[in-house]
């Protein structure tokens, strides 16, 4: 499949080589190859001289396996085997550890210990909705502030909606600024006897009701957590806002990753529109696992017709007594078997292919060259049966291959229609197509092959 003339090519190497490019964010729906794309970009950028760190949020740990690392954690680890002047590091987000690091960095030791040991905090840091996306933003901000790498490549979380990555700061801010949180924080803010009086009188009805719904101990854990975190809430919002602005900066490039399938490209279109609304810099679309064919000139219709011709001819040639049915005379003293063997086969139907005629002639010459001593009726019949079976097998295989080709061409046509609908709606989006590999990527060589195809995928042909 070649790029539609209306789609601008996405040039990957200039993007990676530009020192002004500091962050590349790979986003898209689940299962379209975001992790592989991010890793392949990291390998190519490092081998072209950049000092790269790839941050993945993929729990399947495919990135570690493909880079030859036993495991990835919250600390960047250098990848060995990179061929080039640059460096490649990789890490996998540990959501809870990142949250712990924030607490330890922004609270005194006693308060940090109280927060880390709080049951509500432990639940929040391990699985609260949106925490993973927010912590990915936090980790990105940490990596960028350290300035140890000149390129950060982010593999966004495998969320149901990958745009949760962009929404996380707002959701956290809404949670921290919500009426429920402010109400629970009120006693701590008032302090002293006034606070106790408020807690005993003003909150008695609310705490009694919530205690029945959530449990009294749970409610106390929440209040203790909020009291301890009070001084940190502003820092969360400030850092989230700073990272959000960083994603809008000129040094950031978003790559939307998709497969040539209707649902994936529909999600990609939504992504493109949302990024434009948020004023995020979009570099282009990476279209993964695109199918191709070395015999694209043979259409699906012609392939199916050829397969039908082969199959029709094979069925007619195998009919018993077909020589007699054609009205040909059998020489006196000759057996029917010998007559069938030595008589040239005429086409049985107007759909029979020339290949069948050639095969039949070849079969006859093979039989006629048998030694005379062994050319008795039974020997000739046996040889004829063997040769006919061989020809039948070849024709069956050929017809099967033609039908497989027809199915592949149908897949190519469907992918082209799907892609063209996307490019018609978003002609401004540059596109790079990555041909499908015959197997899974499980090492640096595979990532390098993906990177080569990705770099070449933006060229029209």
What can you see in these coordinates?
The protein is an alpha/beta fold and 461 residues long. It is built from 20 helices and 8 strands. It has helices spanning 12-17, 34-47, 62-66, 95-106, 109-116, 119-127, 131-146, 164-177, 179-190, 192-202, 204-214, 216-229, 233-248, 262-277, 300-317, 322-325, 336-342, 354-368, 377-425, 444-456, and strands at residues 23-27, 51-56, 77-78, 87-92, 151-155, 252-258, 282-290, 431-435. The protein has an 8-stranded mixed β-sheet with strand order 3-4-2-5-1-6-7-8, sandwiched between helices. Helix 5 runs antiparallel to helix 12 and helix 15 (300-317) packs antiparallel against helix 19 (377-425). The longest helix has 49 residues, at 377-425. The chain is elongated, with a radius of gyration of 35 Å. The termini are close together. 33% of the residues are buried.
What best-fitting shape do the alpha-carbon axes yield?
elongated
Q: Order of SSEs, N→C?
A: HEHEHEEHHHHEHHHHHHEHEHHHHHEH
The share of residues in extended strands comes to: 5-15%
**Strand order in the sheet with the most strands:** 3-4-2-5-1-6-7-8
Biggest sheet architecture: 8 strands, mixed
Structural class: alpha/beta
